[in-house]
Amino acid sequence: MKLTEMEITEKKENEEQDSFSESSEKQSTFKKFISNSFLHMAIKKGIFYFVVFFIALTLAFLIPRLVEGNILEYIYQRPQGTPQAVWDEEIKQLEEYLGLNYPLHIQYINFLRSFFFEFDLGYSTLFRLEPVINIVERTLPYTLMLVVPVLLITFFIGNWIGARAGYSGKRKDKIAYYVFIVLQTAPFFWLGYVFVDLFIVELNWFPYGGTVPPWAWDWNAISTIFDHFWLPFVVLILTNIGGWSTGAYSLMTFEKGEDYLAYANKLGFRDKTMRKYAFRNSMLPQFTGLNLRFNGLIGATLITEVIFNFPGLGATMLLAFKNHDYNLIIGTFIITIIIVVVGNYLIDMCYAVLDPRIRVGGKGE
Amino acid sequence: MTKEMLLETKGPELEDSSFKEVLKEKYHNAMARYKAQLILLFVFLVVILIIVILTYIPPFNEPEKVYWVEGSRDNFRDPTFKHLLGTDQHGRDYLTRLLHAIRNSLVFGFITGLLCTGIAVFLGVIGPFKGGVTDTTTSFITNIALVFPQIPFILLMSAILQTREWWVTMLIIGLFTWPWAARSIRSQVLTLKERNYVKVAKMSGLKESKIAFVEVLPNVLPYIFLAFIIFLGNAIIIEAGIAIIGLGQQNWLTLGLLLNHAVSWGLIYPRRLYAMWLTPGICLILIYLAFFIIHSSVSRTFEQRKA
Question: In chain B, which residues have their Cβ closer than 8 Å to the Cβ of A193?
Fold first, then answer.
């Protein structure tokens, strides 16, 4: 397993190097821009994340088939008055039609072929046999518009608050830090219901319900979407800032003891300048936390969507689960994996741009 | 020969007389240094103990007991003197149910935390010591699990598995939340492995597994303990999270199940019985906050000791 992987990476690397040496004569600026090690790391990480995706896909294929009982009996209930024998015959025909009577490995090959070459996730029984891929396409923007801004905003604000509290140590700066620590321990789903009760039921400031229009470049549609959007957005932000600030706080307290800051202090640097230096130097490890936080945030978003009835992937998944729409469950799950994998890949690449050391480390020298 | 004999006779005596003093000194040092943390820990344990004892004595020992008023269930009642937190959808006393739920949630978190810690320790310790293929496979598994979308997977599993048994939820949470601890324990073990005493132990012919679990593991125990506390708190929160949207286990009365009932029986809306859905959340916050404080104070203690 390991050998073959290494061979593949080496081969790809060699190919890349060959093509690179050919093109490098023409484009020397390109060579300067992206060093060889960066490309190497990009390919290596790409293969790794593809393996992760493949394993998750395989599990999504296997788990429902290993569960006891027939999947079709899970989807379709026997109508009342139908004799058992007739119903069994019906199920058998359906199985043959869907290809479920083949042995497992042939089913697996079919599954992979239909996924990778036709990008076919089957048809939803809940939405009148609409292709699952269309439904997912419609719901995906809602999840992304929650996850991406929340991740970026909490990253910057949380680090800023934590670093400020850690650097100055004044009570004024520490208050915000402690407030967000307590908020971080509050379970986000419960806080969601508190917000629903306070802002929707009591004050009636926001609408509630799943009647969110599809995304369109139209003022009415956008304003309606954002009416539904603010509450989950705020809940996710409030509960995620604390995690960043605790990390930033401890990093900053370590950084404060460094010699260069004492030296700068003796030289008479301004406090503002020193804080900037300390902040830049101490925050690098926080980028490695982005991966983990991103994974956690995806899960939190899925549950928050359900609570606020915001029609993203999570709410769709739960709706599908309640209506026994099997294809839609698997479809939304696969799309969620794709988001996670692509997001992690992008975060790793950003880290490689920021910190050149790990690119060299990727070469195994 | 004589010297050795002298040493042998002297050794135990010295240990015996100084052992108590050392213990005393250590105790005083600890009390002087970590007074606040110890008091906090003590208060936390006492509160937990009181809750556990309360669940076994008469007014609070029957969570399923239904109260009747004039032939009908005394349900959806606001807090009164008889029922301090009101009664729920079937006319059961809510305070009793809350106490039982806190106890069960803690037990749930404890078992799940043990499961997670066991997996993390096994994968984190066995890799560096076996080396070769085992090391690469364990670190590969850990790396993959680290970027694996855990909560979506937990949702998928709970949605597809038809059973709503407690052990299913426990297993699902336990099997998908361990990776970061495995990685940190692995890195700790890797540094410890290069110490001289491990080399001496190897030369003296001890078994690899014995060195790993008897010589090296006790040095990593603080990290394992910290990881266990985090797992404990997280397991309680995740269980409540998947229970509140209706995918959790149904046969243990946990805080998550109480919240799930609050949602599905309309205690939040339209009935708006605040005493019945705010309290489980506040309990969750307090439990998680307690574990968070324990974790941060313990980790600070270990850092001080290292320095």
Answer: 263, 268, 277, 281
